[in-house]
Amino acid sequence: MSWLFWAGYAALWVLVVLLAVAMVMMLREHADLVLGSREGRSRLHGPPEGAAAPRLDGDEVRPADGPAPGPRIVLFMAVTCQPCRHRRPQISHFAADHADTVQTLVACSGSADDVREFAVGLGPEVAVLEDSAGDMAASWRVFMTPFAVGVDGEGVVRGKVANPGYDTLMLLARLLTESPGTGPAT
């Protein structure tokens, strides 16, 4: 066998080892998001559960209709995020169905004009905040979109979920309304 064979064979094993390391890192991140940790469902994304939620410092693009109840779900989205665009109808339906118990807020990164255009796909029950530079998302430790954080009436983080849909938002709302700070759901 020639030196070319052995060089190719060695290069193949280097590639296999690199792919194995990358796969372990990816599975570790996925398991961290799905299985969770003592600090919360994800140590890497979002504020820790049980901690006080950071302030919402974004410019309000559109206020929500009606009174703002105590518990709220804060969704982090971006105008350039395609999954975020596809989730807008589900978020709108969720906000309309649960407006009497949970306030739904969307912190959207992008320019003011792009955020206003993005907000058109959300219902009137959803308050939209502009986070043009992503500073609010960074202060909340959110580094992926879409991402939802559930905050109870006392301002404590009670849950969080990546890539939220209607069903996961409903479970998060149930967690917020049944949490010790808010009393049982009515």
Question: Any overview of this molecule?
Answer:
With 186 residues, the chain is α/β, with parallel strands linked by helices. The protein is 40% helix and 18% strand. The chain contains 5 helices and 6 strands. A 6-stranded mixed beta sheet has the order 1-4-3-2-5-6. The longest helix is centred in the first third of the chain and has 33 residues. It starts with a helix and ends in a 9-residue tail after the last helix. 36% of the residues are buried. The C terminus is likely disordered.
Q: Can you lay out the helices and strands and say which pair or pack?
A:
Blueprint: H1 3-35, E1 59-62, E2 72-78, H2 82-97, E3 103-109, H3 112-119, E4 126-130, H4 135-139, E5 147-151, E6 157-162, H5 166-177
